[in-house]
Amino acid sequence: MSFTIQNVLLATDDGYITTDVQILGDKITAIAPNLDVVGTVIDGTHKLLLPGFVNAHTHSSEMWQRGLISIFPLELWLAELYDFAPLDTEKVYLSALGTAVETLLSGGTSVVDHLVLIPGEELETIASAVRAYQEVGIRAFIAPLIQDQSLSAGLPAGESTQTHEPFFRSTAATLELVEEAVRQFHHPDAGVSILVAPTGIQLCTDALFTGCIELSDRYNLCRHSHLLETKAQEKLAQEKYGCSAVTHLQRIGYLGDRTSLAHCVWLNDTDIDILAQTQSTVVHNPLSNLRLGSGIAPILKYRQAGVNVTFGCDGASSNDSQDLLEAIKIGSILHNVTDFDYRSWISPRQAVEMASLGAAKGLNLADQLGSITVGKKADLILYDLTNLSLVPRTDPIGLLVLGRPTNVVDSAWVNGRQIIANRQVTTIDVEKLRTELFHLSEWATNRQSQTVEQFEVHYRTVMGLI
Amino acid sequence: MSFTIQNVLLATDDGYITTDVQILGDKITAIAPNLDVVGTVIDGTHKLLLPGFVNAHTHSSEMWQRGLISIFPLELWLAELYDFAPLDTEKVYLSALGTAVETLLSGGTSVVDHLVLIPGEELETIASAVRAYQEVGIRAFIAPLIQDQSLSAGLPAGESTQTHEPFFRSTAATLELVEEAVRQFHHPDAGVSILVAPTGIQLCTDALFTGCIELSDRYNLCRHSHLLETKAQEKLAQEKYGCSAVTHLQRIGYLGDRTSLAHCVWLNDTDIDILAQTQSTVVHNPLSNLRLGSGIAPILKYRQAGVNVTFGCDGASSNDSQDLLEAIKIGSILHNVTDFDYRSWISPRQAVEMASLGAAKGLNLADQLGSITVGKKADLILYDLTNLSLVPRTDPIGLLVLGRPTNVVDSAWVNGRQIIANRQVTTIDVEKLRTELFHLSEWATNRQSQTVEQFEVHYRTVMGLI
Fold it and tell me: Fewer CB atoms inside 10 Å of the end CB: C or N, chain B?
């Protein structure tokens, strides 16, 4: 498919131009005023074209519990989440559709799904998500969430001498599962990539990390993990390694320019230098970090140290939405309270670059994605600047990032294929999806989580809350 | 007008019931299942009824610069705002309409407009806002923003010995203006109240505060001001009074149960006790406090001390939206990072109470507004729980507060009058408003503010940034 977007606003270094953009097949082929029309004509009048953003960290199936989990810190929140996650692959398929739709309607053209696997149906889980993303047409980076230690091992021990049940699946079997997922589903040219994705130091052995490094190198896969989301994880790392988690991950060779790390709230200055040296990417999930009380990630320090930073929504049970523009807004203004010098604050234009090119770098695709550049792939979002939430007219990017844009995505293309037109997703029946999500769920309140009851006294003791 | 909402979800102390709600005239007259139908029947199936929220602090005309002002702290931001505020009363009217519409579509039935007055056209400015709010039908609390010192006096002096130009209007003339506004526009029964609203200690003399107290007592008016929004204001208060601003305001008698105070970021523990003792209300504007880098208001401490807290959007140039649900979400989850003990965190249900009953208390109207109670006024919002942004179904209030609800307000009533039906504002032509806001504005970037240039060196010096 080829098309020409005419008279569209494009951001320049310090302003905007009105120009034409030509797309042949999957690539941007020309950017100039008054281009000859090739293919379909798209009217760009009063519209802004931006590179598609990336929802660079989420867990799609959490959509089934959004709005529901108690106001808890991560460790107890996770216990409640897992107590009430009776998923099946059909639900995985539907929540992946929902995640894709909300991401697209808020400016995203790619999603990194740190996908929770149904025990015993791991490959079927991945297949369900792949099917959903391919049906919608969003670019998908599926990071099957793996661990080889059981949930209670994720809490620091403190003075206690708890033992933990072994995880139900061996490290070797888990690595074999990831390799099989790569064989079956890793098709970057078709818009689906598999990442190695050990959940984090809190629930993974070095053997699992090392096995993932080996798979990553053999198949040229990106690496994706949680990192130091909470103070409890910082404590745990010291107990486990006698050094910071970042130092340990560097020693075992996990960090690098294909490695993206969600959260990164509890890093010290040495850790930050290591991320910069290794060219690792931080995925900032501001809403989740607030909701779970994890803390404010030192994003301004990361930027000053030259660490690449991008944004994610995190799963919809800890946010509780999949609205990328919301994550970008909060993820940029939140840090103004961490440094009195406003000259280090993140501008709306910088936030847009973090959400697009920053994400592309973290996925080792900066040569192909993340900016509107001749030769790059056509992953594009066209925003309708006449929308009520974007008037009066001022600075289009300021309005998008600092405002609360609603129903503003006029069109979206992924790999040159149009998947939103006239503000409607064209590839799936969103109305049918809405009805299914409604009918497969019920109103719920006041759940009692048994695992929370098991964990809470220990958690409060070890975190100094008693 | 009378109506009966049938089979609607209402929140109880710890869950929900499905019931009927009957409204006669402007009041809620019965709440019970299977009520006899009186007046129009409203189908409440799969809908949640909540008391209308209050946008308890905003400046409506800032809508003309939303998305546009540089990423600055308050003092420089304000300089830029005022350099580019060539308002006329028609624009004031339109931005008041816009503020009312965005507030309504995000669950608000009342707005407290700390209204910037056009010099020389002060009463005409107020008349324009009154006209807009009455046309929309939202309950309006208009707080004409007054000061009697010029802008540069709002910066702490530090080591400098600057003098400031006198403000263009005398204190007496300003108070006379407010009194005339009360005579002309203060009609609470018609849905419009005037508040006395000295902007804050940074730009007001004691004579102005004292005159406002006197007017407030004579006409039974609420009082509304900014308070200690920034660290610079904390410094200034020490320079001006030799004590904290709160101590000073208590001494002159400004605080009390009809006084609501926007921001309250830089209060110490003694200040907090004073707010509790005087039963003053804090209006928390989380998005503005982040955008301007003002800081994180100690809201959990306020709640623990028994201080009443509610939410505002603040003006649309410092947020940059008028979405109350966004302010409520961020205003509740933001504080989870300020206290490790999750037992003090704000739950979604507590946030809803703060946004409704908390606001009513601050406006001295808790006997009439703020809850769905027989005998109270029918300021009500009916949310459509089948909306895509609220599925899968879980906890309705959790979804509303923690999610990112979009297009979810099915109906709104103010004083028993329906002003939103089937998700459309019924009282004004929103499409016409959108077109006017679009055509009366233009794309803009890269403005140079002369006042910022004047202030910046001094600001950086006195704040220790050089």
Answer: C
A328 shares its domain with A376: no
Tell whether A232 lies on the interface with B, counting CB pairs under 8 A: no
Nearest chain A residue (CA) to B347 = A71
**Residues B7 and B118 both lie in one domain:** no
| Number of CB atoms found within 10 A of residue B17's CB | 12
CB atoms within 10 A of CB A223: 25
Per-residue pLDDT reduced to its tens digit, A154-164: 999 998 888 89
Which positions in chain B touch A445 (Cβ < 8 Å)? Answer: 14-16, 395
Contact A150/B at CB under 8 A: no
> Is A404 close to B463, i.e. CB distance below 8 A?
no
- Reported as half-sphere exposure (CB side, CA atoms, 13 A), residue B84 has a value of 24
Quickly state the pLDDT bin for B446 (edges 50, 70, 90): confident
SS3 letters across B313-352 = CCCCCCCCCCCHHHHHHHHHHHHHHCCCCHHHCCCHHHHH
What does pTM read for this prediction? 0.98
What tens digit of pLDDT does each residue of A115-157 get?
Answer: 999 999 999 999 999 999 999 999 999 999 999 999 999 999 9
For the segment B277-304, the average pLDDT, to the nearest whole number, is: 98
When pLDDT is cut at 50, 70 and 90, the band that residue A85 belongs to is confident
The pLDDT tens digits for A309-360 are: 999 999 999 999 999 999 999 999 999 999 999 999 999 999 999 999 999 9
Asked if residue B380 lies in contact with residue B51, where contact means CB atoms within 8 angstroms, the answer is yes
User: Is residue B97 in a domain?
Assistant: yes
Q: pLDDT tens across B187-245, in order?
A: 999 999 999 999 999 999 999 999 999 999 999 999 999 999 999 999 999 999 999 99
What are the structure tokens assigned to B263, written together? 């921001």
User: Does A445 contact B14 at a Cβ distance shorter than 8 Å?
Assistant: yes
Verify that B88 and B187 share a domain, yes or no. yes
Task: Answer yes or no: do A165 and A222 share one domain.
Answer: yes
Q: Which of A158-167, A393-402, B27-36, B259-268 is least confident? A: A158-167
Q: What is the DSSP letter of A167?
A: P
User: What is the ipTM metric for this complex?
Assistant: 0.98
The answer to whether residue A446 scores a pLDDT higher than 80 is: no
Using CA atoms of B350, B353, B355, B356 in order, give the dihedral in degrees to the nearest 10: 170
Q: Which residues contact B436 (CB under 8 A, 6 or more apart)?
A: B94
Q: If phi over 0 gives left and psi between -120 and 50 gives alpha, with beta otherwise, what is residue B282?
A: beta
Expressed as residue numbers, the domain containing A203 is 53-363
Question: Is residue B79 located within the same domain as residue B141?
Answer: yes
Q: Is A452 contained in some domain?
A: no
Average pLDDT, rounded, for chain A: 97
- Upstream peptide bond of A298 is cis (omega within 30 degrees of 0): no
B466 near A CB under 8 A: no
Question: What pLDDT is stored for residue A1 in this prediction?
Answer: 78
Is B340–A16 a contact, with Cβ atoms under 8 angstroms apart?
Answer: no
Q: Cα separation of A382 and A43, whole Å?
A: 10
Helix (H) or strand (E) holding B401: helix B396-402
Q: Point out which residues pair with A51 in neighbouring strands.
A: A380
- Is the domain of B242 the same as that of B382? no
CATH number at residue B109: 3.20.20.140
Is B246 part of a structural domain of the chain? yes
Judge if B302 and B345 occupy the same domain.
Answer: yes
Q: Has residue B11 been placed in a domain? A: yes
Domain identity same for A353 and A385: no
CB atoms within 10 A of CB B458: 17
Quick check: B86 contacting A, CB < 8 Å? Answer: no
pLDDT over 80 (residue B86):
no
Number of domains forming the structure of chain B: 2
Alpha-carbon distance of B106 to B405, in angstroms, equals 8
pLDDT at B162: 81
